[in-house]
Amino acid sequence: MNVLVTGAAGFFGRNLVENLKNIRDSKNRMHPALRINEVYEYDLNNSLEQLDEWCAKADFVFNIAGVNRPKDPADYKRGNFGFASQLLDILKKHRNTCPVMLSSSIQATLSGRFGVSEYGLSKKEGEDLFFEYAEKTGATVYVYRLPNLVGKWIRPNYNSAVATFCNSIANDLPIHISDPNLELELLFIDDLVEEMFEAMEGHPHRCNYPMAGETVGGVQYDGVTPLWTAEGKYCGATVTHKASLGYIVECLHAFHDQPKTLFMPRIASNSFEKKLYSMYLSYLPKEKIVVDLKMHCDDRGSFTELIKTIDHGQFSVNISKPGVTKGEHWHNSKWEFFIVVSGEGLIQERKIATDEVLEFRVSGKKIQAVHMLPGYTHNIINLSKTEDLVTLMWANEVFNPQSPDTFFEPVVKR
């Protein structure tokens, strides 16, 4: 399959192109049904001759090219309708009826807070053009009405408030929120790219847009919300997230402060917070990519807290000098994993009020996780006379100096 992407240098286009190449080069094997030979990248720096050649060879076309913030409002129609018309004319010239995807906008509904805008009108005209093309040629068209797109590589201070906030907070710049309660529907680019693969495989998610005030199945629609149906005229990405500007900024400040607090916010699988955190990190300046951690050093070695979590404990690294014994304490309910990653050591544990000592030889040559059991006093001994013992430690709760649940007692009674 040869794939043509127009608008290839833009935010959506670049993410799509690079992921198409991952499939082409067998780096991404999650879509075995897709076989990609060539990816044609068309943008403003390419010639119409190249577009003509690629339209003749394409087996699937993504029309992502468009205009969203022109100086002259008339450019909306020239960029969003005019180019689409030109593209379809070239495909017709070559009698190429391969599937074509159109990147439209939810603003093309001309409903709700979007009202009637030059941008929305130009997108709606582009949609109508594609549907007419499908009727005349028999080609399959996938018209996607997209909400606010966000994710890595999106340009800040342009047409995405979320990108602007990410960039400003990451770089310690001031931000202004006009209405913290304003809710946005956000579509992350990685979810959209996955939907594009679904379309290429011939099973996009389809929908209709009932008119504002129309009731379907007991639900009253607002003209903007999609009604998902296999017979839908339009297509859409089913995984979107709604969040207020105030909450978005609150999350971004927590991400910004993480290197200082060490607290990792909740980032559940496929959650809005997880995706936003990934987006935020893509705006970090070079000097913030490396984080200095506080090492607590003494003549025995060092102890450094790495990451703290709200409900999954904390991670630390412990370095013991040759011959040093650390620990010699027990906990009531706290428990830990000790994972030696370098050196040779001995872990000892003894149940409180008993005499039996459990011993475990540990080594960086064989990575193992050893439980530090609640109610057992425990230690770790560096057996080497020359090398440091490096141990990754995880505790099921963040250390609280006001309630440490840590009590000194030697493992081996003297």
How would you describe this structure to a colleague?
- By secondary structure, this protein is α+β, with helices and mostly antiparallel strands.
- The protein contains 9 helices and 25 strands.
- Strands 14, 15, 16, 17, 19, 22 and 24 form a 7-stranded mixed sheet that branches. A 5-stranded parallel sheet has the order 2-1-3-4-5, with helices on both faces.
- Helix 3 packs parallel to helix 4 and helix 5 packs parallel to helix 7.
- The longest helix has 20 residues.
- It is elongated, with a radius of gyration of 29 Å.
Whole-angstrom Rg: 29 Å
Q: Strand pairing plus helix content: what structural class?
A: alpha+beta
How many β-strands, per DSSP? 25
Q: β content, as a range?
A: 25-35%
The main β sheet shows up as: 7 strands, mixed
| Overall body shape | elongated
End-to-end Cα distance, whole Å, is: 75 Å
Unreliable spans = none
Proportion of residues in helical segments:
25-40%
Total DSSP helices:
9
